[in-house]
Amino acid sequence: MSLPVEFIKKYQNLLGEEESNKFFAAIDSSSKKGFRLNPLKNNYHDVQYSLADPIEFTSDGYYGGISGRDSEWTSGYVYSQDPSAMYPAVALNVKPGEKVLDLCAAPGGKSTALASFLENKGLLVANEISKSRAKDLRENLERWGATNVVVTNESPERLSKKLPNFFDKILVDAPCSGEGMFRKDPAAMQYWSPEYVLTCQARQKEILTQAMKMLKADGELVYSTCTYSPEEDEEIVAWLVENYHLKIEPLKLYPGMSMGKSDWSKSNLPELKDTVRLWFQNGVGEGQFVAHLRNTEAVEDASSKVKKRKKKHQKKSSITRLTKDEITTVAKVLDNFVLPDSLENWQKTVLQSNGHVFVPAVDPELLNELHILNNGVELGLLKKKRFEPSHQLAEVLGQKEQKQLLNLKNETDYEHYLHGETIKVNSELRGFVLVAYQNHIFSFGKIGNDQILKNFYPKGLRK
Ligand SMILES: C[S@@+](CC[C@H](N)C(=O)[O-])C[C@H]1O[C@@H](n2cnc3c(N)ncnc32)[C@H](O)[C@@H]1O
């Protein structure tokens, strides 16, 4: 692989001859594949993959590959992720019930892990600035089937204006120069230059400035990149410590992880050694840098920021409550299924917007004027006296053992269903059913008296 000359010189200088040779040789070796299972799903270990090689530092991560056609994937039982990239979400140490923000979230590798750790309790706001990438993020989180997720497509600046001092935990998995991706995706090299590294550094500071506005006075921040450049790693952490009331929290070093390099930052701050670097040559996965910081700002200082917020005149919302009759119509369908605990009292909080019935994860008023792709669980669509359950609900219902369930009998039927075709079935069930393959629920369908399974797999997802 032909690395940029200035890149070679830089790392020879930083690492010395012996270690830089190992580093360059490792860039030419094959990359490591990993996947994470989804503990939110029913019998979540029931997958076709070998679980013989677990990744030590996370609960549900394993070495190995998966395919996007597998029923484990379409049903959200599994997510393919570089093993090193599993560490930032672990480092944030999220507890059920907390309010968590993943500010640079697409395609959702870390958001899906954060949703697992929250166990449907508290809130995850997964934000992505790019419209097309935000769509992928929404789809990946939809498959994951958590009930407490909001997906936004916003700039950090607009988000921070709405949600000052709001989050207990924030992950900034920043856009970076991507040196840690050179092995897996050599095309990443074409953008690299010393100037590009500095452009990334400036953007990271802008993003973090907004993140800090949203962090609670006693909140915690994880900053991560998939690059090795000290300008985007230790230098950024030193900048955070110098400009905010942030303290570096030591991260646990697992085999294959290295300490951050204090002497690679101009500040030479000794605590920088408590950050973590994952090098190709150390065998965990691709390149990653992770830092965990705690806000130690006095609570009074932070609350004064909230008071400064002006109450602007808000646009009239299209969101309304449901009538009793509408609730009955929805309940008639939902009563056939076992809901996760977090949706048991759905009648109390359910809302609708132009017929889209949803159980919000957060009061929609709070997010007024933001670009929201998902708020909680869309239960389905009310069409006059009829209710059609949503695809998202099918993925959510995969959390529980279900009776109103049709297991497709072979791979051909599964492939046909993914393609959007109807299937002739032999079943007593009628009306809306959950459709599964190998017990992995991945869609709704509807069976009529003719025993034809009508296809409700969304057009946008068909393969
Ligand atoms: C490293 S990727 C995130 C990967 C993601 N956390 C995951 O685990 O799947 C960085 C993300 O930051 C987004 N991004 C780029 N410029 C940004 C900006 N100025 N503010 C916020 N996010 C930005 C990119 O679109 C990209 O999706």
Automatic annotation (TrEMBL):
CDD domains in alphabetical order: AdoMet_MTases, RsmF_methylt_CTD1
Keyword Methyltransferase applies: yes
Family: Belongs to the class I-like SAM-binding methyltransferase superfamily. RsmB/NOP family.
InterPro entries: Methyltr_RsmF_N, MeTrfase_RsmB-F_NOP2_cat, MeTrfase_RsmB-F_NOP2_dom, Nol1_Nop2_Fmu_2, Nop2p, RCMT, RsmB/NOL1/NOP2-like_CS, RsmF_methylt_CI
Protein name: RNA methyltransferase
Taxonomy, superkingdom: Bacteria
All copies of domain SAM-dependent MTase RsmB/NOP-type, residue ranges: 1-296
Species this chain originates from: Lactobacillus gasseri
Record: residues binding S-adenosyl-L-methionine: 104-110, 128, 173
Alphabetical GO biological process terms: RNA methylation; RNA processing
Pfam families linked to this entry: Methyltr_RsmB-F, Methyltr_RsmF_N, Methyltranf_PUA, RsmF_methylt_CI
